[in-house]
Amino acid sequence: MSTATSRFTLLDDALTHELTATLDGTQVRLAADDVRATLGWTLEERGLCRGDVCIPVRDGAQDLRRDGIDLDELARLLGRPLALDVPARCAALGTAASERAAGLASLEAPDFTLPDLDGRLHSLRDQRGKKVLLVAYASW
Amino acid sequence: MYEELREHDFVVITVALDRGADARPFIEAAAPTHPSLIDEAHRLAELYHILNVPTLVWIDERGRIVRPSDAQYGTDTFTEFHGKRSGPYLELVRNWVARGEGALAPDDARRLQLAPDPDAQRARTERALAWYLHQRGDAEAAERHFARACELAPLDWTIRRGSMPVRGQNPFGPEFFELARAGAPEYPMEAVTPTREKPRAL
After folding, report:
1. Whole-angstrom Cα distance, residue B34 to residue B183?
2. Does residue B173 lie in a domain region?
3. Prediction pTM value
């Protein structure tokens, strides 16, 4: 099977990262340096680490390490959903259901920043001190 | 209603889960004085686990959710279809803003919240990738992931119906009627908020 090194786009919630990846069939391996620079995770003796947090890596250690970090394995270890399109050289890492559910259960209203029609940005936190009626609607 | 209640520390934030061009005529016609925002990427749907429109959430002065996602209406234009009246809901909002009534206790707010399951989050991730690819001009790749998102979350109308305009489908056409036959998503709050003409049995 042929392998190729190419630029790869990784959507990380609202952020968009560009990384170097090795593609082999449906397998995507991300350059370890790029993973550290964009997502903040490093492969160490103790496991996959970011700051004080380390996720132990047992079975998949070899897969994870070879020619970079296997994207599928990375998503699995982080417990995050992955949407992948190899031909488009693009993937998205989402938020785990457990994390979203815990966030909502805290009753802390998630902050957001969105534009109005003129492109001016507004955040929920700008309205602290007021009661807010948040209304999602659509033309459809 | 916003104008009537502005004297209180109260604000309405409307968020269109739409492309800007699709939302523009509605916003220009309404000319709102409150923040009226555009959410092309469906960030709000992701953050609040929104399944359909309209969805309303009450947030208090400290930024706490005191009445979680609910599907209610500001007018009676479509009461015939959804069976909900706007009057009692607007009265609830007035009482909350003016007198602080109707905010739920934290345990009740939690109990009446809808939490996403893993497939729902996978669907949102597929949708995020689809929207990115669409914006990049890669319609063919985008379609693969819009379709996958719809398979994963068959009852999430922000994904199924909300992606129709982008996918070249008519959100008021045959694809929508097929979707509607399968049933609309429902929030736990809808069983609690007393706006139905004929309250549905629990």
Report:
1. 33
2. yes
3. 0.93
